[in-house]
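step: validate -> pass
step: tokenize input -> pass
step: predict -> running
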Amino acid sequence: MKFAFSRNQIALAALAALGTTALGTAPTVATAGEKNEKGTYQTGDFHNHTTCSDGSISLQKLVKKSTEKSEGNWGLDWFVQAGHGGNGNRNCTLVEDDSLSTPVYPFLPGAGPTTTWANSIGAAAVKGNATNGTPLAAQANPSMWRWQSVQEFSYPVVEYLSALKGVPAFMGVESVVSGHEHTSMSVITGQLPDAIYKQKLPATGPYAPLGNATALSQWTYCFDRGDTDNSRGGGQGWDCSVTGSANAADADWNATAAKLTNNSGQAGHLKTVQAVKWMAEFHPKGSYYVPAHLERAGPFNPNGSNGFNIEHLRNFNNAGPDVAFGFETQPGHGASSNRGEYRPKRNNFGGGVIVDSVGGTTYGGTGVYGAQVGGVWDALLGEGRNFWFFASSDWHNRGIFGPDDRRTTQDFQPGEYQRNYTMIKAADSKNGRGDDRHGDGRDDRRPTPISPQQIVDGLRAGNNFAASGQLIDRLAFVVCTDRSASNIEKMAAEAAKDNTAKFEGHCAAMGEKLVVHKGEDLIVGIAVRDPSGKSFSPYSFDNPSLKQVGISQPLDQPVLDHVDVIRGMVTGYKQPGAADYAGEWPRGWLKDDGSTLTLADVPAAAKNETAAVIKTFDSRGWKKAGKDILTMSFRIPNVKASQYVRLRGSNLPAAVPFETDANGNPLADLFTNENDVTKLKIPCTAFGTTEFNGCPSHLATVDGQKYVSFDVAAWADLWFYSNPVYVEVKGSTMVAGVR
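step: predict -> pass
step: emit ->
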């Protein structure tokens, strides 16, 4: 597609202690018959980094690149800045150059976003204690705890930029997870009150924020594995207790710090369950917890902090279904030498045990938990859980290139390659002020931007699809009863044109459920927009992967090849302690020749063998409905049991060597990962006069031949995934996770 503008069992005993009361708790999610609110799909990213953690650019530059709609920027509608928990010693609020200056945060010659806290605010201003309990302020060059940098520095900047630019940018954290690896999360309480858009902005600093990120900062202090501070928030008196939990009676409780301090293995996992419970108790509608690149660090390690097995995802969702409602199984780092930074033999479990990332690599840029039909995601959906698919950029840097280069050997910036398209139900409203808030002689009345609450509500509801490389930018996906195929296609086309999900009749959209009588027919309607023009890819030469099968298609003008409809049956929640509740995805899933094990090798807990592709649409089966809109529909007759349907699509047809199998499933990205050049298989032969109209010089080269790798591999291999529509058949299994 193109834009119109260019560019295991170990957990079972512990789970018995968690109880099963949460299993019947259903999140507040829109249901069939509640779809007439005004809303549109709006694009965003919630996992990325600045120099306050381990990124390469300032907070201001990241917001600009992500949200501004001018050439070279990516135009996201909403943005969450979410650097790592723990600490860092650089001040990301200092800008690189004068082009990023604002009246409140001007460029300071000789200073920039790599300047240390000690050399910008002074070591004495750094709060909290080191791991040994001594004050950080006594150190010559201290690293600042993430709770302080979020609360006192990053949040004021994003509030100011949101008010100045009229774009909602707020704070999250990529938590370093006790017992596991990483999670994208936020607590939005206090952030971006509507009043920020009505104030007159100051002409000089300092900016006094009207809101705050104190709740997020407290969570970070309490539950992030990287935070070993015992100062209770630098004297703010923070207590990390959770109602009904052991708290101070727990052997791992540190009374001085007022928090749990065992951060690894099963004890670490149980601490993280407490983190979700804390969010559900104190900020039930104002927080989210979405494990990130969850296959990367391998399976769960009972003696360390590595990955996530399916039981851990169930535990989180049980503890807080309104909080832990999905995963980030389409990771960032899409241009890395190993796509997503997944690779074989990546993780050292100690004692000579070296394990692969789960699945060994990504599959069309998506981790095996999401990419494998009938795998972990389908197992969770087959329970009727509210558990949704998300993507992220995980921006840090461009590898060997600078941040303003269009080439990359590591990351894409937020919105450049992957984005979440989230249904935000929000009515436009003027801010009620006609004054000149910016001192430029203009009336500054404008629609009030969407709020963090509306964004989190949208993510929680699951009406979200994710796409890479601008493959599609509109999707209407609906399941109805008692409606003809022609009418449902027309309805879907209108919704796609309007970028909304408003459907008349007895229908349900993504993240919703349709309740029907046994024996009724279902009609599935789909409309996508594959817009004409160029994508954000900087490369204009033909896609080398498609060239293998005789298709000439420029990398910056991808075309949707097909849409798959995937269906699975719903059989109800699995119970903690049951034999099919916990299970590790097989180690050694990926073989050296790129083939994999099969679902027969996967434990019952981690699969749903009823899931299958039941329909595929391509240019021979879809219709055109005006400019760039493609429509399709089909009937599921005489439904007897509760089920769900979901979508995926690609620019690649079936049977593209080293990319897709004969059924159109994504193959392992092993053969485009530069980390092992002996496995590179797809040559890049396009000759050009620049780095962009022919195979660029940074591609991996073997015996003088360039091969598809790094960013070219990502732009060549594009996918979108939708979240499911549930169908609950009366008298069959209840879809308990969705109301």
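step: describe -> The chain has 13 helices and 29 strands.
step: cleanup -> pass
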